[in-house]
Design brief:
It comes from Streptomyces yanii. The protein has eleven helices and nine strands. The protein is α/β, with parallel strands linked by helices and 289 residues long.
Length: 289
């Protein structure tokens, strides 16, 4: 599945910090769809369908939930980013269920929660049989440590022997975007160790290490091509900054400096028609609980 080239027309003051709502919309409108091939590959492998009761950690603005729901799965998402969750509600729920309505949504609709996964036990008492983590780990210092508490809260909500899917970036040599992400590392090089949230190269065993520490049993893995395609340079910069992988760099310098250097790093990936194209590979690891 090839991502659609997207163009973003919003204009902001480049010297101002990025508004969380603007960044969430950039994620939903520009960047999130780049991971759709990863979602589809996982769902195909696990035969996600009407019998699936899925809990998604870090569900973001809900595209992975939407794809699973289209396959007739019952879906529940949890995230700490309220701006992204608001966009997920717009996507997944009728207006009456999200516009000032109660949380959670009425029974039978996708369920969306903010905060700790321990609060998302199924209302009908039937446990989940699939847990997904589609926020790719392994490129941000400390991301696996942040994931472990969420996994520990969510695993008791699963039926015994359920599938758990972890995802991450592929090897840097297979990800053209890695060269652009190195901008984040260079701008935060003031400390000996990577700053919290700062970019680092993905390691071969990142996913297996998280699975081991969470007490999960790996039983399969795969790699999926997820090219990043953008209609123009502005869309590419906004999409990449919405990933949060440049947050530490913005704190260390400022947003306009980061945007400038990201744009320069993207030039080798521009085509003659002005579009930006970067082939990437992502990994997934299927475990049993």
């Amino acid at each position: 599945m090839t991502p659609t080239l997207v163009r973003h027309h919003g204009q902001t003051d480049p010297s101002a910090p990025m508004d969380p709502g603007t960044r969430a919309r950039d994620w939903a409108e520009i960047q999130e769809r780049m991971l759709a091939p990863l979602y589809e590959a996982v769902y195909d492998r696990l035969e996600v369908g009407a019998g699936t009761r899925m809990l998604s950690l870090g569900c973001g603005s809900g595209l992975a939930l939407l794809i699973a729901a289209a396959r007739r799965a019952r879906v529940t998402g949890v995230d700490t980013d309220r701006e992204r969750l608001d966009l997920a509600r717009e996507r997944l729920l009728p207006e009456a269920a999200w516009d000032g309505g109660p949380d959670p949504a009425p029974a039978g609709l996708p369920q969306l929660f903010a905060g700790d996964p321990s609060a998302v036990a199924p209302a009908d008492g039937v446990p989940y049989n699939l847990l997904t983590v589609f926020s790719p780990i392994g490129c941000s210092a400390g991301d696996s440590e942040g994931l472990l508490p969420a996994l520990e809260s969510a695993l008791p909500l699963l039926a015994r022997g359920s599938s758990v899917v972890l995802t991450g970036w592929g090897p840097p040599e297979r990800c053209a975007t890695a060269a652009v992400l190195r901008v984040a590392a260079r701008l935060t090089d003031g400390a000996r160790a990577p700053r919290a949230g700062g970019w680092r190269p993905a390691r071969r065993d990142d996913l297996e290490d998280v699975a081991f520490r969470a007490g999960l049993n790996p039983n399969g893995s795969g790699r999926v091509a997820c090219p990043f395609g953008y209609a123009d340079l502005d869309s590419a910069v906004r999409g990449l900054l919405s990933t949060r992988l440049f947050d530490a760099a913005v704190r260390a310098t400022d947003r306009s400096q980061v945007e400038k250097e990201v744009a320069e790093a993207l030039h080798p990936h521009r085509r003659q028609d002005g579009t930006v194209w970067m082939p990437n590979v992502f990994r997934y690891l299927v475990c049993t609980s």
